[in-house]
């Protein structure tokens, strides 16, 4: 309830103080969920998250106060002072986990459970994204483009060396944030569409991983014995998150590259498109491990034969949507 309240307050507010209040409610609401297991790694993750988010919220409040001092405006859409714009970009980047302020996010996600990690990767990113969209006319385009390309590069590069599934999904989130940020100034609706589709695909993957109790590549290699249909569709959902046509994840990348080309930013579109190939490599590795029938080496994990045959209808619907939504592109194209 507190998470929904904080998100609603931030998204629907016009005043900087109300937006800051919503962000603080969100931060205080998610910390008990992160530290719920009472494991040392979970406590460490909760501490890291609290310190990072508190610093970012303070910086955001300072940027709004600076803007109010020079312009007399507390309205979110009236952020005009250059120093305030720079401070706000930094604060929101810390909250989102954009490069170069990404260091906290993989560690926090790794220390959280699958359901809490799902909240961190989706719902907790919505209020900062909304603030970026509201203030987008005042932000520096060169700074945002540089951070977006750096996020896409680092998300793909760092994900190559991971064996923990949650860390892979964390770097995947950083990479997708780069795609959302690069188109923010030119087509905010496209940023929202990318965010919604990312949340859809990530929710399907997190819930499927939680059902099959997959935490790393070793357990993923033997997960096919539990629910074979779910691991098969999980492979398609991972490829969709990679942006492989003709799956749903290809739609936002297709539209973003099209919009960047219209804005005469073909070199930028080519760069971020080539950087997405790094992410495609580790998604393919995950998809291969999800559907492999025999592990390549001896495994210490006990194989479970058909232990859980029932799959929740929500997971089925989410995975179906995360695979088959590309067919809606003609409708989206005609409405925009």
UniProtKB/TrEMBL annotation:
Residue ranges of domain NADH dehydrogenase subunit 2 C-terminal in the record: 280-333
GO molecular function: NADH dehydrogenase (ubiquinone) activity
Gene Ontology biological process terms in this record: mitochondrial electron transport, NADH to ubiquinone
Main location: mitochondrion
Entry's transmembrane regions: 15-34, 46-66, 86-105, 143-161, 168-186, 192-209, 230-248, 268-290, 311-332
NADH:quinone oxidoreductase/Mrp antiporter transmembrane domain mapped to chain residues: 13-271
EC number: 7.1.1.2
Membrane topology: Multi-pass membrane protein
Reactions accelerated catalytically: a ubiquinone + NADH + 5 H(+)(in) = a ubiquinol + NAD(+) + 4 H(+)(out)
Root EC class: translocase
Family matches, as Pfam families: NADH_dehy_S2_C (PF06444), Proton_antipo_M (PF00361)
InterPro entries: Complex_I_Subunit_2 (IPR050175), NADH_DH_su2_C (IPR010933), NADH_UbQ_OxRdtase_chain2 (IPR003917), ND/Mrp_TM (IPR001750)
Keywords assigned: Electron transport, Membrane, Mitochondrion, Mitochondrion inner membrane, NAD, Respiratory chain, Translocase, Transmembrane, Transmembrane helix, Transport, Ubiquinone
One annotated Gene Ontology cellular component of this protein: mitochondrial inner membrane
Presence of the UniProt keyword NAD in the record: yes
Cell compartment(s), UniProt: Mitochondrion inner membrane
Function: Core subunit of the mitochondrial membrane respiratory chain NADH dehydrogenase (Complex I) which catalyzes electron transfer from NADH through the respiratory chain, using ubiquinone as an electron acceptor. Essential for the catalytic activity and assembly of complex I.
Family: Belongs to the complex I subunit 2 family.
Protein name according to UniProt: NADH-ubiquinone oxidoreductase chain 2
Source organism per UniProt: Scytalopus speluncae
Name of the coding gene: ND2
């Amino acid at each position: 309830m507190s998470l929904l309240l904080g998100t609603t307050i931030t998204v629907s507010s016009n005043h900087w103080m109300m937006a800051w209040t919503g962000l603080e409610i969100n931060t205080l609401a998610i910390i008990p969920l992160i530290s719920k297991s009472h494991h040392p790694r979970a406590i460490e993750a909760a501490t890291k998250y609290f310190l990072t988010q508190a610093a970012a919220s303070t910086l955001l409040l300072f940027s709004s106060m600076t803007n109010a001092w020079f312009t007399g405006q507390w309205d979110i859409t009236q952020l005009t002072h250059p120093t305030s714009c720079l401070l706000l970009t930094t604060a929101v980047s810390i909250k989102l986990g954009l490069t170069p302020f990404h260091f906290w996010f993989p560690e926090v996600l790794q220390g959280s459970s699958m359901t809490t990690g799902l909240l961190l990767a989706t719902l907790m990113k919505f209020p900062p994204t909304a603030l970026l969209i509201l203030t987008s006319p005042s932000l520096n385009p060169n700074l945002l483009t540089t951070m977006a390309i750096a996020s896409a590069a680092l998300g793909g590069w760092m994900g190559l060396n991971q064996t923990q599934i949650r860390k892979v999904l964390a770097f995947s989130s950083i990479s997708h944030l780069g795609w959302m940020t690069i188109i923010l100034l030119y087509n905010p609706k496209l940023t929202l569409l990318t965010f919604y589709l990312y949340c859809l695909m990530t929710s399907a993957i997190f819930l499927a991983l939680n059902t099959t109790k997959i935490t790393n590549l070793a357990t993923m290699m033997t997960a096919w014995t539990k629910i074979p249909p779910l691991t098969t569709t999980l492979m398609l959902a991972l490829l969709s998150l990679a942006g492989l046509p003709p799956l749903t994840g290809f739609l936002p990348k297709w539209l973003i590259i099209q919009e960047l080309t219209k804005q005469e930013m073909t070199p930028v579109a080519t760069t971020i498109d080539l950087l997405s190939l790094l992410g495609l490599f580790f998604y393919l590795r995950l998809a291969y491990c999800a559907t492999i029938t025999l592990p390549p080496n001896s495994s210490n994990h006990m194989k479970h034969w058909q232990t859980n045959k029932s799959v929740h209808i929500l997971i089925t619907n989410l995975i179906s949507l995360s695979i088959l939504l590309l067919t809606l592109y003609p409708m989206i194209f005609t409405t925009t």
